[in-house]
Amino acid sequence: MVRRVAVIGAGAAGLVSVKCCLEEGLEPICFESSEDIGGVWRYTDCRDSRRVSVYRSVITNTSKEMSCFSDFPFPQDFPNYMHHGLVLEYFRMYARHFDLLRHVRLQTRVLSVRKRPDFTASGQWEVVTEAGGVRESHVFDAVMVCTGHYQEPYLPLASFPGIASRFQGQCLHSREYRDAQDFRGKRVLVVGIGNTGGDLSVELSRVAAKVFLSTRSHTWVISRVSEHGFPRDMVGTTRFNHLLEWLLPSALTRRIKFQKFNSWFNHTNYGLASSKSSKFKMIINDELPFCLLSGTVVLKPNVKEFTESSAVFEDGTTEENIDVVLFATGYNFSFPFLEESVGSAIDDNRSLYKCIFPPQLEKPTLAIIGLIQLTGSIMVGAEMQARWVAGVFAGWNKLPPPSRMMAEVLESKPPVKRNPSERENLKMSFISYMDKIAACAGVKPSVVRLLLTDPQLALAIFFGPCSPYQYRLVGRGSWSGARAAILSQWQRTLKPLRTRVLADSSDSSSSWCWVCLLALPAALTAGFLFSK
């Protein structure tokens, strides 16, 4: 029977894992190697090689209503997209409210996690930690690894001939970036067009002499702001849209998406993406199109090679006098503290059952929390994982036999190991994954049942944002405030914008009620489809 649980890491996933364990009557101890909670969201000027931090200007890509923990909304006066400092403040509020800090041991590094000799019977782990130069050995009934996937910088120097042997300028990874001041007046080449590459290119363009952004991918750029000024994820991430994507042919949904993306600006004209491409990525950036339009950022193809001071690209063009090459090429994850037989088998989150449990273990007492790529908030996904895992450890939720888990993993596991940029293309649907884990945990809401018992709420959760509160309506851990949180989420969205109220202004969120009423017949039909 599981009682004592080791939680490794006190970032978002670690904090919520501690809370979920406490709710199930377990005894968690959280080990955090740094001096404070917050994980990557705790900004620091220090470039400690063992710790990854956000850079100074980071703003969230997901809105507050779609990013909060499911029973603890962000304060209503917080902006919809937040600076990293407010995210960290929210974590502190969460930890204080649920009294989590007394279960966290700061400046305590986990050195090793190994099976006990009687693991096949007990499922127990020996965890060795170090704090203040003193090593200590502990025995735990279960372990939750919450170190995330931003761990080791992925620096593919071998793919760029000349970068290490000939190039005389500065070469660094985005992990070392804090702000733009060190790049003032320089000619900078950014390699990689993920969210980080786009953000850094825009920021550097304000002080650098010139910024070049090199990419080999077809990339669609979307704004955080929807057509009517609401957060895009609140408008787009709905069960109704999710159902449409499932019903319509994939070629048609892809065409609709491309047309929508191009309604902001024509991506082909900017050299970013072609609607004929079958492989593409999406990034969130509100300013990159203007930087390309104004010439402060110049888009380039993949780099073929480097000389002493220039970059030669695959299209034959050359950019001279490059001072800095900044690699925004992502991260690799690793678990150096796990014993070799366990850690070596995890080369992708699809090596794990439901992206959580190593299927080869005789006892399911090890869980990897937060090692996911979603089209929505990873924080919310990590919380759902932690709720299910804590229920498994407490005996409320059951897993299938290891043979069945292994068969499912082998069916979905990729044939080869992918680098971080390729893993980006494997993002899972937020709603699909959340519903899958929620069903395992017994907390997935039923649209059909709600249509019969609470039509107003049913319409809100079907046509409105698939916000985290939906997963607190039923089952273990249900929250009495979930219904009110869902029905008031648009008011909280507008609250921080009402700093200047006009005489003829009205509550724009009320229009959603009319949308829901007009769409009632479709909701009834969709409800039956969901029940199948």
TrEMBL record:
Top-rank taxon, per record: Eukaryota
GO molecular function: flavin adenine dinucleotide binding; N,N-dimethylaniline monooxygenase activity; NADP binding; trimethylamine monooxygenase activity
GO CC annotation terms, alphabetical: endoplasmic reticulum membrane
InterPro entries noted in UniProt: FAD/NAD-bd_sf (IPR036188), Flavin_mOase (IPR000960), Flavin_mOase-like (IPR020946), Flavin_mOase_1 (IPR002253), FMO-like (IPR050346)
Cofactor(s) essential for the protein: FAD
Enzyme Commission numbers on file: 1.14.13.148, 1.14.13.8
Its membrane topology: Single-pass membrane protein
UniProt catalytic activity: hypotaurine + NADPH + O2 + H(+) = taurine + NADP(+) + H2O; N,N-dimethylaniline + NADPH + O2 + H(+) = N,N-dimethylaniline N-oxide + NADP(+) + H2O; trimethylamine + NADPH + O2 = trimethylamine N-oxide + NADP(+) + H2O; hypotaurine + NADH + O2 + H(+) = taurine + NAD(+) + H2O
UniProt cross-references to SUPFAM superfamilies, sorted A to Z: FAD/NAD(P)-binding domain
Presence of the UniProt keyword Lyase in the record: no
Sorted UniProt keywords: Endoplasmic reticulum, FAD, Flavoprotein, Membrane, Monooxygenase, NADP, Oxidoreductase, Transmembrane, Transmembrane helix
Gene3D superfamilies: FAD/NAD(P)-binding domain
Subcellular location, record wording: Endoplasmic reticulum membrane
Family from the record: Belongs to the FMO family.
Function according to Swiss-Prot or TrEMBL: Broad spectrum monooxygenase that catalyzes the oxygenation of a wide variety of nitrogen- and sulfur-containing compounds including xenobiotics. Catalyzes the S-oxygenation of hypotaurine to produce taurine, an organic osmolyte involved in cell volume regulation as well as a variety of cytoprotective and developmental processes.
Official protein name in the record: Flavin-containing monooxygenase 1
